Amino acid sequence: MDSIAYVNGSFVPLSDAKVSVLDRGFLFADGIYEVSAVLDGKLVDNASHLARLERSVGEIKLKLPETVGRITEIQKELIARNKLANGLVYLQVTRGADTGRDFPFPKGDVKSSLVMFTSEKDIVNAVSAKTGINVITVPDIRWERRDIKSVALLAQVLAKQAAAEAGAGEAWMLEDGFVTEGGSSTAFIVTQDDVIVTRQNSNAILPGCTRKAVMALAEERQLRVEERAFTVAEALAAKEAFITSASSFVQPVVAIDGKQVGGGKPGPMATRLREIYVEFAKATGV
Prior knowledge:
The chain is α+β, with helices and mostly antiparallel strands. The chain has helices spanning about 25-30, 45-60, 70-80, 130, 155-165, 210-220, 230-235, 270-285, and strands spanning about 5, 10-15, 30-40, 40-45, 85-95, 115-120, 135-140, 170-175, 180, 185-190, 195-200, 225, 240-245, 250-255, 260. The strands form two sheets. Strands 7, 8, 9, 10, 11, 12, 13, 14 and 15 form a nine-stranded mixed β-sheet that branches. Strands 2-1-6-5-3-4 form a six-stranded antiparallel β-sheet. The longest helix is centred in the last third of the chain and has 17 residues, at about 270-285. It starts with a strand and ends with a helix.
């Protein structure tokens, strides 16, 4: 059966969901997106995602067409209409459709466009959570405002395609010799003395919502967390490595560019953090 999408005020079959070819998201990637996980029919850590949405649209002077409260209502209705138990809700806001293709912001009353749809995915029982994933490294060729969750994702598309062609589960992007982040995830390592390390938030990376929650959960359990950049060499010498994202929760990394990390098996820290995060997701879903 065709799933249901939301397009600018209407719930429609996904196959009928359409926006104008003059939509600025289509023409200029002039838009912002978010992806929230759904577990047992409930949104996971959604307030954090919507707070980041508000920050991102503010950074590009884009007005949300609905309140955050109303957006949450729409998300929940989509989940109900699609009978979604486990998966993702995708949300995209663009500057809308103008009368032509002109770079400056539209003049006059052009309303922002809001589109949402869902997809099924059993994040909790993913096989890769037990086996771990391989990652490859690629140059980070993105713009300088990666803290904004822009729909301009060509660099990530190329990185993820390179990973797919190499049979890897993710690509880690490198800049000035250091790992910035994954194509759609945050990169972590665990040092030999059990310090959890991830790059500090800045314009160089997206402030990951799952990253934030996992770090808070780790600190609540008196685990040591350090925010700083790290190299591939340090990652290969680490006890463990892992990634976090809304679409994967916590995933162990067992190899980088074909070289094993931590003996080539998921480590106890990543495994435990995944368990803790799933417990958090189930307890706090709305």
